[in-house]
Design brief:
mainly alpha
Length: 165
């Protein structure tokens, strides 16, 4: 009895590990297709990962919806995927969601929300992207009143607990 339980536990661990490896391989393959602009294959590989909650895949799927590459152009769908990924802390998705709020593409136009997401993106971005993200955040800030700027900073500081957007 104990021996059969051990075998069952080992079998489950092996199955979970193999599934994780396949998902990681699919993300690498999907990312490679995305980078070489093979958006149809990228969408085919990344959409199932995005649906299972992979933040990186969600950001790329959002981009493909926003640009109409590999998936039909749909700003609402792009905003949906950006939001899911941004809420998991993906800086690229936070940046793209901030731009969407600035332009009102797929989400209501809202400078406070744009500033919040761009501020978070700049804070979480790798060093090579940080300056560009901060530059765009500052461009949005230049269009805002002091009260709006304070609100954007407040929401960024309290993210993810206190945020209506």
């Amino acid at each position: 009895m104990v021996k059969s339980v051990r075998y069952l536990v080992v079998a489950v661990v092996v199955a979970v590990t193999a599934t994780s490896a396949v998902r990681a391989d699919t993300l690498v393959t999907g990312n490679a297709a995305f980078v070489r602009s093979d958006f149809v294959n990228a969408a085919r590989l990344l959409l199932p990962l995005a649906e299972r909650g992979n933040a990186r895949a969600q950001a790329m799927v959002g981009f493909m919806y926003a640009t109409g590459q590999g998936l039909p152009q749909a700003y609402d769908a792009a905003g949906y995927w950006y939001r899911l990924s941004a809420e998991q802390g993906d800086p690229t998705a936070q940046y793209l969601l901030g731009l969407a709020y600035d332009k009102g593409q797929g989400v209501p136009q809202n400078e406070v929300a744009a500033y919040k997401w761009l501020n978070l993106a700049a804070a979480h971005a790798p060093k090579r992207s940080r300056e560009n993200f901060a530059r765009l955040r500052n461009a949005v800030a230049s269009k805002m009143s002091r009260g709006q700027l304070a609100a954007g900073q407040w929401y960024a500081l309290r993210w993810p607990e206190d945020s209506p957007f």
